[in-house]
């Protein structure tokens, strides 16, 4: 076991190399090459761990000796993530992503019943309709357009609204509040106000669903479970924010990456068999969960990869570097849409907290990418690549705008 007492802790790197928008911060990759499990200095003075290697990351995410409980973890970010109940208190009822088993298990089981593969597959025709509608609107407006506002954001927003039973006419409200919540350049006070606004909106919606249930997920949870309004509100908040924020950024950033890799895009256009592997490869190659997550707190002393993680120490995953680990992926810095093992990526996490909506995200991406490049075969950037503004300060990486023409 190595001597970790004399090791100088690193700080979490988040800035990308200019001109390399799809690559992880170079410091992350240097850490992976020299020490895939390194000491990490936190803003509050805590010293924990930064993981940049695939094998230790997968082992920790699957190990019940590591906790997601917020009151046990230290934030690696200057502004901690805002959530109901606060970032240093036990998870609020219904905020299942920050609970360990057995508290997490009941919520997860209830929600898994709403996110079955069969139900997600049944949504495909409606998702295809939503995608076609947005593409037709793009064609009618004519170029140039911002692909984020015209396509990448409204598609998952429409889908998650229909799934949850949230009126789509309110999408501008929750998209604006979510942006305030997840952009770390905003103050903690701004983020807390946005959280309160979203929670208040959804609390009212839950009350409405109790009196007038419909064929949607919130109504289903009311019917199938014995959940309080607070639990339902926090579950809906988790799903609403995650359901459009991450997929929207993957759609836009993935389109940007394909446009910057014309050889891969040409292969994607002519070979339908690439669709599924292309989605997995884009998830691996881009890894939009890029800043301080997922993270865990050790519940006891645990040895991982020859290093001793002490009880109480927080462990942070550097997912962009983890998904480019050459020990797992051959030539990992190259986008290869036919990569055979791309699905082994950890973009959706691993273990009991693996992303609940991953199948829905995959379906949306598969349908959206295929239809976009079929409908607009001459699609191209309307600005120089270096003029595309990147979301480096947001919890989910991506682009703020993507001007395109055809």
Structure notes:
With 406 residues, the protein is α+β, with helices and mostly antiparallel strands. The chain has one domain: Orthogonal Bundle (Cytochrome p450), CATH 1.10.630. 46% of the residues lie in helices and 8% in strands. The chain has a 5-stranded mixed β-sheet. A 3-stranded antiparallel β-sheet has the order 4-10-9. A two-stranded antiparallel sheet has the order 6-7. Helix 9 packs across helix 11 and helix 13 packs across helix 15. It is globular and about 60 Å long. The termini are far apart.
Short account of what is shown:
With 406 residues, this protein is of the alpha+beta class. The protein has one domain (26-405): Orthogonal Bundle (Cytochrome p450). The chain has helices spanning 26-34, 54-61, 103-112, 117-122, 124-141, 147-152, 154-164, 171-182, 188-211, 217-224, 229-259, 262-270, 275-286, 319-322, 358-375, and strands at residues 37-41, 47-51, 66-67, 145-146, 295-298, 302-304, 307-309, 314-317, 380-381, 403-405.
């Amino acid at each position: 076991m190595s001597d970790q007492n004399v090791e100088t802790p690193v700080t979490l790197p988040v800035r990308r190399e200019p001109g390399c928008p799809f690559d992880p911060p170079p410091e992350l990759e240097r850490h992976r090459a020299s020490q895939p499990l390194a000491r990490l200095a936190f803003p509050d003075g805590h010293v924990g761990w930064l993981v940049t290697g695939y094998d230790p990351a997968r082992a920790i995410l699957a190990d019940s000796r590591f906790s997601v409980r917020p009151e046990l973890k230290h934030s690696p970010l200057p502004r901690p993530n805002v959530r109901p109940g606060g970032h240093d208190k036990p998870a609020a009822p219904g905020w299942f992503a920050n609970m360990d088993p057995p508290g997490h298990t009941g919520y997860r089981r209830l929600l898994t019943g709403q996110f079955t593969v069969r139900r997600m597959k049944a949504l495909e025709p409606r998702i295809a309709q939503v995608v076609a509608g947005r593409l037709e609107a793009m064609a009618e407006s004519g170029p140039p357009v911002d692909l984020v506002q015209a396509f990448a954001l409204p598609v998952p927003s429409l889908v998650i609204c229909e799934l949850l039973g949230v009126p789509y006419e309110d999408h501008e409200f929750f998209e604006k509040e979510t942006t305030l919540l997840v952009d770390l350049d905003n103050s903690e006070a701004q983020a807390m106000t946005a959280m309160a606004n979203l929670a208040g909106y959804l609390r009212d919606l839950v009350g409405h669903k109790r009196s007038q249930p419909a064929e949607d997920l919130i109504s289903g949870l009311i019917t199938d479970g014995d959940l309080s309004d607070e639990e339902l509100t926090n579950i809906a908040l988790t799903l609403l924010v995650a359901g459009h924020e991450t997929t929207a950024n993957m759609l836009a950033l993935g389109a940007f990456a394909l446009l910057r890799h014309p050889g891969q895009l040409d292969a994607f256009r002519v070979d339908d068999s690439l669709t599924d592997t292309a989605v997995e490869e884009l998830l691996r190659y881009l890894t939009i969960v890029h800043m301080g997550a997922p993270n865990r707190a050790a519940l006891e002393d645990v040895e991982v990869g020859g290093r001793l993680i002490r009880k109480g120490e927080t462990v942070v995953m550097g997912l962009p570097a983890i998904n480019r680990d050459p020990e797992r992926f051959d030539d990992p810095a190259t986008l290869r849409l036919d990569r055979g093992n791309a699905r082994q990526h950890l973009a959706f996490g691993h273990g009991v907290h693996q992303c609940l909506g991953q199948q829905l995200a995959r379906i949306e991406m598969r349908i959206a990418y295929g239809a976009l490049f079929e409908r607009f075969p001459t699609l191209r950037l309307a600005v120089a690549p270096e003029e595309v503004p990147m979301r480096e300060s947001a919890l989910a990486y991506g682009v703020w705008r993507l001007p395109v023409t055809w």
